[in-house]
Specification:
Strands 1-4-2-3 form a four-stranded mixed beta sheet, with no helix packed on it. A four-stranded parallel beta sheet has the order 6-5-7-8, sandwiched between helices. A three-stranded antiparallel beta sheet has the order 9-10-11. The chain contains eight helices and eleven strands. Among the domains are: about 70 residues, Ubiquitin-like (UB roll), CATH 3.10.20; about 110 residues, Rossmann fold, CATH 3.40.50. It is an alpha/beta fold. β10 and β11 form a beta hairpin. The protein starts with a strand and ends in a 22-residue tail after the last helix. Pfam families: Mut7-C (PF01927), Ub-Mut7C (PF14451). This is Mut7-C RNAse domain-containing protein. InterPro entries: Mut7-C_RNAse_dom (IPR002782), Ub_Mut7C (IPR027798). It comes from Actinomadura keratinilytica.
C-alpha cells in the first residue's frame, strides 16, 4: 500500500512511510485496511488497486498494489436546494476557529458541551460538515461528511479549512458569539447599551438578530480586517489552483465585542 504524503500524519510514527506491506486476510475491505493504518476514510480521496479505481468496499488480493490519495482540494460539498455555501459544525476543541469562521460569514455551529454522538446527529440532520481533530470521531460510520482540521494554531487551522473547501465568504455578516445574522442598526437605537467612549468614537453599528449582541469596528478592527483579507487571499489561491476539469467549489460532490474572533 502506498499512502500519499499528505496522509502520513495519520500513521503511527513507526510506520510513517509512504509505501509498506499490509497483511491481506482475504476478507477485510480496503477501507478497513486503510483505517487500520490510521487514516480516517473522510480524509481519503481516490483509491486504486493495480491502477484501477476501486471503492472502500474492495477486497484486496495478495500482491495487489494499492494507492491511497488524499481528498481533492478544493473539496466539493453536497449542497441542499437553495443553499449556496457549505454549513459547518465544530467540535468542542475548535472554539477560536469557530469565531473566526463566523467573522468570515460562514454558517458555523459550535457548542462547548456536546458529546460525539450528539455532534454526529446534528451534522447529519442539518447537513453540516463536521470539523474536528478527533480521528475517532471521523471514523464513525454514521457521519455523513467530516474533515480533519490540520494545525495547532487558529491561523493555521483557518488557512487549512479555507484551502480545503474554498467557501464563498461574506465577512462581517454573522455574530461571532452565536452565529446569528447581523443587520445594520442606527446609533440612536443602541446608544443606551454603549459605553460613553464607544458612543463618542463610533457611528456604524450592527446587531445580531438572534442574541441581540451589538457590534462595531472597535480598537481590534484592524486585526480582524487582516484576518478577513488573508482569508480572501487563501480562498482565491485555492480556487486558482483547482484543476480545470474539476467542478466549482463549493458545489455538488462527495463527504471586547470587536475582538470576538481573535
Amino acid at each position: 500500500m502506498r499512502v500519499a504524503p499528505e496522509l502520513l500524519l495519520f500513521l503511527p510514527a513507526a510506520r510513517r512511510r509512504e509505501e509498506q506491506a499490509v497483511a491481506c486476510d482475504g476478507t477485510s475491505t480496503l477501507g478497513h485496511l486503510v483505517e487500520a493504518l490510521g487514516v480516517p476514510l473522510p480524509e481519503v480521496g481516490a483509491l486504486t488497486a493495480d491502477g484501477v479505481r476501486v471503492g472502500p468496499s474492495h477486497q484486496p488480493s495478495p500482491g495487489e498494489r494499492v494507492e491511497v490519495a488524499p481528498v481533492p482540494r478544493p473539496q466539493p460539498v453536497p449542497l441542499e436546494p437553495g443553499q449556496d455555501a457549505p454549513r459547518f459544525l465544530l467540535d468542542v476543541h475548535l472554539g477560536t476557529l469557530a469565531r473566526r469562521m463566523r467573522l468570515l460569514g460562514l454558517d458555523t455551529a459550535y457548542h462547548n458541551d456536546m458529546d460525539d454522538p450528539a455532534l454526529v446527529v446534528q451534522a447529519n440532520e442539518e447537513r453540516r460538515v463536521l470539523l474536528t481533530q478527533d480521528r475517532g470521531l471521523l471514523r464513525r460510520r454514521a457521519l455523513w461528511f467530516g474533515a480533519y482540521v490540520r494545525g495547532a494554531r487558529p491561523d493555521d487551522q483557518l488557512r487549512d479549512l479555507l484551502d480545503r473547501f474554498a467557501p464563498p465568504l461574506s465577512p462581517w455578516t454573522r455574530c461571532t458569539a452565536c452565529n446569528g445574522p447581523l443587520v445594520p442598526v442606527g446609533k440612536e437605537e443602541v446608544a443606551p447599551e454603549l459605553a460613553d467612549g464607544t458612543r463618542r468614537s463610533y457611528d456604524v453599528y450592527g446587531r445580531c438578530t438572534e442574541c441581540g449582541q451589538v457590534y462595531w469596528r472597535g480598537a481590534h478592527g484592524g486585526h480582524l480586517e487582516k484576518i478577513v483579507q488573508e482569508a480572501a487571499r487563501t480562498v482565491a489561491a485555492a480556487r486558482a489552483a483547482r484543476p480545470a476539469s474539476s467542478p466549482g467549489a463549493p458545489g455538488p460532490g462527495a463527504g471586547g465585542v470587536d475582538s470576538a474572533a481573535s
